[in-house]
Amino acid sequence: MVMNLEINTAVPHGELAKSLADKLRFYIADTPVPVGGRLPSNREIARCANVSQVTARMAVMSLLREGIVETRGGCGTYVVKHPAELPLGRTGKPRRIGIVLSPWDSEAELVWNIRDLLSEVIGSISAGECKLVILTYAQWQEYAATDPARVILENGLDTLVWFYAGSCEIAFIARMEQQGVRQLLFHRRPPGLHSPAILYDDAGSIGDILSQLSEEERHRTLIISGDPAMPPYSYRLDAWKQQCGKPDADRLLTLPEAPFPQWTGLVLRHELERLKPKAVVDFAGYINPLSKLGEEFFRKLGRPKIFSFTPPAAWQGEHQLHYTCYEPEPRAMSKALRSFFQFGEMAATVYLPLHRRQY
Exposed/middle/buried for 211, CB within 10 Å: 0-12, 13-18, 19+? Predict the structure, then answer.
């Protein structure tokens, strides 16, 4: 039988052996290779997976440590027990859903967008017959530090919902994709991943922002962004480039995501005083640090127009600033979530329209 051991290219090189070990477990379970059956040679495994023999040998060693296979001197590698099977959710509606919260959430307090989103998710799930398991980011990291697949096995999950997909999550999400585990991503889908995602209509919002700016204001806009290579910042910057041209490097301020270090307030003040922008576009949720600078500060700057994708309730900050905010349309989100949780189906990408609101 031909082995399907193709490795998802989104898996970093250091994760290839883990990904291949996952594939081998499913090969043993699905073929099925009987207990006592012989596993193909490392050379054959490497050829089918298009990896080196070193990677193939490391993957087989993982199965050896788990007691799934054993080597018999001069005879090859043999199956001694079947691996535990993941409760895959390939078809039908979800039955047991795991939600991994973002790094900024705790069991006691959720940040604004996750709080609203979780309410929509629970509302959609309550209309069906599925169970919900909520995991904090710290709990997920405990699984990730040892064997990430345990998050599925120990909780009996058939579906994973990610409220955050950063660099630490990409490899695992990619591995689960190639095993057929049903997953849903919110706000960002890093390059190389293919699970359904609910994203914001950033292009439409950027177009609306530009429609409110004169030519001079566009050229004198300060953009505040997170890592330009990572979604959603890459989405918004691409939309800006397509509609207005590439912003000057001097007018693109890259800062860390929340929770914001104290020094970011000093950097914001310095850059605003230095550039004296006609407009400020906040991609990264810095509306509250901006607000703390006060109305008098912005009056002395000439009252630049301020736009953000973050409402004033974010990060429990105090609202002291008048600005334009872009927020997702709740009805569109509810429709997408109902489709996924009640029927197990959704378009590969759902773009939520954002409506303009003045604060």
Answer: exposed
Same fold flag, 96-195 and 203-327? yes
Supply the pLDDT for residue 140: 92
Q: What is the architecture of the domain spanning 203-327?
A: 3-Layer(aba) Sandwich (3.40)
Report how far Cα 147 is from the mean position of its chain's Cα atoms.
Answer: 20
Tokens 């499913």 correspond to what residue? 26
pTM for the full model?
A: 0.69
CB atoms within 10 A of CB 319: 13
Which residue, 29, 8, 28, is CA-closest to 19?
8
Domain ranges of the chain: 13-79, 96-195, 203-327
Q: pLDDT for 236-294, tens place per residue?
A: 999 999 999 999 999 999 999 877 888 999 999 999 999 999 999 999 888 878 888 88
Distance of alpha carbon 64 from alpha carbon 234, whole angstroms = 42
Bridge partner residues of 185 (DSSP): 162, 197
For domain 96-195, is the CATH number 3.30.70.330?
no
Asked if 186 contacts 117 with a C-beta cutoff of 8 angstroms, the reply is yes
Q: Give tens-digit pLDDT for 159-200.
A: 899 988 887 788 888 878 877 788 999 888 888 888 899 898
CA distances from 252 to 78, 201, 318 (A): 57, 21, 25
